[in-house]
Design goal:
By secondary structure, the chain is mostly beta strands. 0% of the residues lie in helices and 67% in strands. The chain has a four-stranded antiparallel beta sheet with strand order 1-4-7-8, with no helix packed on it. A three-stranded antiparallel beta sheet has the order 5-6-9, with no helix packed on it. It has a two-stranded antiparallel sheet with strand order 2-3. The chain is elongated, with a radius of gyration of 28 Å. The protein starts with a strand and ends with a strand.
Length: 132
């Protein structure tokens, strides 16, 4: 029997900003004020996962030849801790392609911790055979 610990710390951020060469955009005879357009996205995941795995192996040797067989059971989830998952996304001052109007600004932020997060890594059944 083996104890297995899998730890994941994942952090991803993307921040895009665009600004015009001047503070106004000219559309025929009209001037339209223009602001910095931005798009931000962030994701963060962290946890530890503790599992058990059983291994069984046999070997046979005859003269110059030897054979071996190993079977590894699927993993059994025991416990998880340090669980945090968060996500944030916002968009500001993004205009339509033709520049006629702005798309709606928005901000989405969510975070889940501890019992709100379910972690269940799985290792498959593994069978291996070797010959020397």
């Amino acid at each position: 029997m083996f104890g297995v610990i899998k730890t994941l710390h994942y952090n991803y951020q993307l921040n895009l900003c665009a600004s015009p060469l001047s503070d106004t955009v000219y559309s025929g005879t009209d001037t339209i004020p223009f602001f910095i357009a931005s798009n931000f996205r962030s994701e963060y995941v962290r946890y530890n996962n503790y599992r058990l795995i059983w291994k069984f192996g046999i070997g046979y040797k005859s003269g110059q030849f030897s054979f071996g067989l190993n079977i590894t059971s699927p993993s059994l989830n025991v416990y998880s801790d340090g669980k945090v998952i968060s996500r944030q996304e916002n968009r500001q001052n993004i205009s339509e392609i033709d520049g006629s109007k702005f798309l709606p600004d928005y901000m989405i932020a969510s975070e889940q911790e501890k019992d709100e997060v379910g972690i269940n890594h799985k290792d498959p059944l593994s069978v291996s055979f070797g010959m020397n």
